[in-house]
């Protein structure tokens, strides 16, 4: 048998995106309801302008519908991006926030768990502050740019995949925090590079079972995603003039193979980013046995034999990636 020859270095992706389910709606921040400093808000996202203010008396100053959104449409990594910055609320400087959920202010204590963002799945406040999501991504990629008064400060992004419950995110929420409906999360500390340039951040999702134990794979399908970006990971930890710009949020579904075996032997020169190979086989009329494994625990692999080509199809929640193995008679090339 002659050696297998690696022929084409290419990636063939068959996308079947459903942006309302497998990708973040308006994750590239190209759609805006209004524009202008302090009044702009990206479509499907929420901030202070439509927050649920339950504060009373002097604590309600600067709170409620009269409050501006405190986000700007800015030149992004590509096209437009979203910039957030701190705001004065109840006499305190609080972090700039943008979220897919509903913001709630119920206590003058900024560290109170009564102040949170949550998925308003029943649309109680009429803001449609709940983002439907049914994918099980492996990672999330996004771009950020800082303009922080103290470069040592750390901003934060939190991504929660959860079931059909009004899931909450609070300032002290950690990745290990147990909460009903929790399926997966990605907690992202964003550090200032102090160069005023866009940088790409990549974070993996961690999945949990119903007892809050970390699991490799999850059979549970999320109903919603709750995302929150904040200019500082500590409540009231920022400074006046801090700015955090965000753009191009992409959920990544890894459809690459980790291994490919032919008749019990690993394919020489196998590269998971390359999808087309030629296999020289003996003229015995027998189709070689192909065994392949996916990198992602949430992806599945099926092998489709053919007379001259074997297809290895990796399926994930957002589509498929196809590897092909072209069969060539070894005698014909001698």
Detailed description of the structure:
The protein is mostly beta strands. It folds into 2 domains: 5-14 and 255-333, Immunoglobulin-like, CATH 2.60.40; 23-252, BT2081, beta-jelly-roll domain (Jelly Rolls). It has no helices and 29 strands. Strands 10, 13, 15, 17, 19, 20 and 21 form a 7-stranded antiparallel beta sheet that branches. Strands 1, 2, 25, 27, 28 and 29 form a 6-stranded mixed beta sheet that branches. It has a 5-stranded antiparallel beta sheet with strand order 6-7-22-14-18, with no helix packed on it.
Shape: elongated
The number of E-state strands comes to 29
Query: By helix and strand content, what is the structural category?
Result: mainly beta
Question: H/E order of the elements?
Answer: EEEEEEEEEEEEEEEEEEEEEEEEEEEEE
Helix content: under 10%
- The CATH superfamily of the largest domain appears as BT2081, beta-jelly-roll domain
Mind summarizing the main beta sheet? 7 strands, antiparallel
Number of domains: 2
Distance between the termini: 11 Å
CATH level-1 class of the largest domain: Mainly Beta
